[in-house]
Amino acid sequence: MTRILHLTDLHFGFHRAALEEPLLARIAALRPDLVVIGGDITHRALPPQMRQARAFLDRIEAPLMCMPGNHDVPAWNLVARMFWPFAGFRRHFGPVLTPVGRAGDVRVMALNSADPYAWQRGKIREGEIGRVIGNVDAMGTNIVALHHPLQQLPRVDKALARRASEALYRLEASGVQVVLSGHLHRWATDALLATGRHPRVLQIQTGTALCARITDGQNEFVLLEIDGPDLRLERHVAPMDANGFGTPEIADYSRVSGVWRRV
Ligand SMILES: [Fe+2]
Ligand SMILES: [Fe+2]
């Protein structure tokens, strides 16, 4: 049994400071094997926000892997955005923008979907799809983690990241079984599976862990418990009017038949 915790859209600088300690306590209690930080670690990519976020992440005892979100690229300093868009991220969150994490027989491969030229929309880089496909472990569970979703529900009014659909088809064909994403600050897993378009990939689109934007409705993160072809999601939710996480919502899935089904 491997425990992967997905934490995304922390938005340090515009975050719920009162939720920091309850979040750290809940993470410590869950004892994950690996924590995946899905981008938008800061709100405006400013050095003080990066330092504050780094200090928070340093208090997580489990191994961490981080990838950039659009908010981790300078939004206002256009010179920095064009010429050294990931310098601050590399300095504070690791020199590699596309790390690979391993825990048990689970492999987590990050994509960098932040695009300095299309700040909100993002893109999947052609070379990165091939790199991930080359890293797929035929015997284990393969997870791709990135900031931007690879599929969006019809109600989403944001443009899908460039090359997202192509990436999803190719990753599914190559044996990637799970995709973790953030960015939309809205939970979607069953609704994406129900579209029937990519039955061999469980797309877990997680909401924001700490962002203070009231219209997000709640903060949340998810723990994946992976046991061969079986996967349990534990979704931990903190309503905006409560400084703590409630009893997690549990959902079980299996890909024993070759496609994902909720069981
Ligand atoms: Fe975000
Ligand atoms: Fe984002």
Concise overview:
The protein is built from 7 helices and 12 strands. It is an alpha/beta fold.
Strand residue percentage: 15-25%
CATH class descriptor: Alpha Beta
Spatial shape: globular
* Category from helices, strands and their pairing: alpha/beta
Order of helices and strands: EHEHEHHEEHEHEHEEEEE
Please tally the helical runs, counting DSSP H or I stretches of 4 or more residues.
7
Number of strands: 12
For the residues shown, what is the average pLDDT?
97
Strands across the major sheet, in which order?
A: 3-2-1-9-10-11-12
Distance between the termini: 18 Å
Q: Can you summarize the main beta sheet?
A: 7 strands, mixed
CATH architecture assignment name: 4-Layer Sandwich
Radius of gyration: 17 Å
Helix percentage range: 10-25%
Contiguous uncertain segments of 5+ residues: none
How many structural domains can be distinguished in the coordinates? Answer: 1
Determine the CATH topology: Purple Acid Phosphatase, chain A, domain 2
| CATH-assigned homologous superfamily | Metallo-dependent phosphatases
**What small-molecule ligands were found?**
fe (ii) ion
